[in-house]
Design a protein that fits this description.
The complex is a heterodimer of chains A (205) and B (228).
Chain A: H1 3-17, H2 30-35, H3 40-69, H4 78-100, H5 102-107, H6 112-115, H7 119-134, H8 140-168, H9 180-195, H10 200-204
Helix pairs in contact in A: 1-8, 3-4, 3-7, 3-8, 7-8, 8-9
Chain B: H1 2-12, H2 28-34, H3 38-61, H4 71-93, H5 95-101, H6 112-122, H7 127-157, E1 159-160, E2 163-164, H8 179-196, H9 218-227
Antiparallel strand pairs in B: 1-2
Helix pairs in contact in B: 1-7, 3-4, 3-6, 3-7, 4-5, 4-6, 6-7
The chains are: A mainly alpha (205), B mainly alpha (228).
């Protein structure tokens, strides 16, 4: 692996966390972002589980798409196949963790059933294929790094936001903004701060 | 007559009383992502409504056939089939819309509104009420998307459906087209819908009651155990 490739991988990883953050820039995975970010512990557990599933799902769906689907002209089955693979994978992972690693199951496994319908997971498996279609140098390893980076980006957003929300608990909020509206306004401000990273990764290349 | 009014209620409840986005807080990702222009909002709303009506009808027909244990994967397969139909249709007839919606078109599969209505309504009700429920929810979803799309396009680009409205009157505020503007406008709409609703307050952010997976979710079960 030469220097240029490694540099490219670092750029993909950083871009996935900072400039193309799945939650704050691409609006993927908003439900868990709003739903389970109230406590730092749950936010951390959920995002670790999402990261693991994202990497495994990309590792499985990529060869499946390039292997059986494309040569047979079945690209239109992408949506059906990918969601079923993810659902099966999540179920399998949960069963394995439950059976063989109870401590890990208690900290990560309990979030797995929710991940089937997390659009960030299905999103990453499709977006890496979209990127690969437009860039011949973008291969399997780049896709896996991208998936891992997206998971870490999800984690960063969740953890940061959990901190913001813990502060928000103590604030005196007008009645009509209590609950979800003020949480969304806070998310808006966190998203503004992430706009500051724009252009950072291009500079790196 | 009585049956007719109840059917009418199934249809209208999705529009404000149980608006899927603003009251049940489902399908937020698509709402935030595609509302940078009013035209995209309508396209997304129509696509989702089609899938919602078809999947609600099909799942209601199959409700006695699908075994309870594998119902979630079965629902997802049915929904994914209809999403593929919509995808192919839009690709063929409106490639511009396909490009504008991008990955969010296939992501209708994981839009929690659809799975939520399948789990909470279609699996327990007859076909006609299920279809009307899907139609009402779809109209509510489209109306919300349209309101957000018009607001964001007007403030962020000074146009509505691509027609210049604010030119010469005020400078467009570009941040409304960027992600932060999406979160902000959504927050304000949720507050407004909360004010107009019967309870006079917005939904809590961590309300799991309407999540389609609440029944099989261990976080939810733990919360319940801790509460009891």
């Amino acid at each position: 692996m030469d220097g240029q490739v490694i540099k490219g991988l670092v750029a993909i990883f950083l871009a996935a966390i900072l400039t193309e953050n799945y939650v704050l820039n691409k609006f993927l995975g908003i439900c868990p972002f709003l739903g389970v970010s109230k406590k730092l512990g749950t936010a951390l557990g959920m995002s670790c589980a999402v990261t693991v599933v994202m990497v495994i799902a990309t590792a499985v769906t990529w060869p499946l798409y390039v292997g059986p689907l494309v040569p047979n002209g079945l690209e239109y089955l992408q949506t059906v196949v990918f969601i079923l693979v993810i659902a099966a994978l999540v179920q399998l992972l949960e069963t394995i963790l439950h059976r063989y690693m109870p401590p890990l199951y208690n900290s990560l496994g309990i979030y797995l059933p929710l991940i089937t319908t997390n659009c960030a997971v299905l999103g990453v498996t499709m977006l890496v294929l979209e990127k690969a279609a437009g860039d011949p140098s973008y291969g399997y390893i780049q896709a896996l790094v991208n998936a891992f980076g997206s998971g870490v980006g999800f984690l960063v957003a969740m953890v940061l936001f959990a901190g913001v929300r813990e502060r928000l608990e103590e604030c005196d909020v007008p009645k009509c903004l209590q609950g979800l509206p003020i949480t969304l306004v806070a998310a808006s401000l966190v998203a503004v701060s992430f706009l500051g990273f724009n252009g950072l990764v291009d500079r790196l290349m | 007559m009585n049956e007719k009014t109840s059917l009418w209620r199934e249809f209208t409840k999705g529009i404000l009383r149980e608006n899927p986005v603003l009251r049940l807080v489902l399908g937020c990702c698509a709402t935030l992502a595609v509302t940078t222009a009013a035209g995209n909002a309508i396209g997304m709303g129509a696509a989702t409504t089609f899938v919602l009506v078809c999947s609600n009808g099909a799942i209601s027909l199959l409700r006695n056939v699908i075994p309870n244990k594998v119902r979630i994967p079965a629902y997802i397969t049915v929904i994914a089939g209809f999403v593929t139909i919509v995808q192919l249709f839009i690709k063929a007839f409106s490639p511009e819309l396909d490009t504008a919606l991008g990955v969010f078109l296939p992501l209708i599969v994981v839009n929690c509104i659809i799975l939520g209505r399948a789990e909470m309504f279609a699996s327990k009700n007859r076909v006609l009420p299920s279809i009307l429920d899907g139609l009402g929810m779809g109209v509510g979803f489209t109306a919300t998307l349209l309101a957000m799309g018009i607001l964001r396009e007007l403030l962020g680009a000074g146009t509505v459906f691509g027609l210049p409205v604010l030119s010469g009157f005020m400078q467009p505020i570009i941040i409304f087209l960027l992600p932060p503007g999406g979160f902000f406008v959504f927050g304000m709409l949720v507050a407004l819908a909360g004010r107009l609703s019967a309870e006079k307050k917005p939904p809590a952010a961590t309300d799991c009651g309407h999540c389609p997976l609440a029944a099989s979710c261990s976080i939810n079960n733990r919360k319940k155990e801790a509460g009891e």
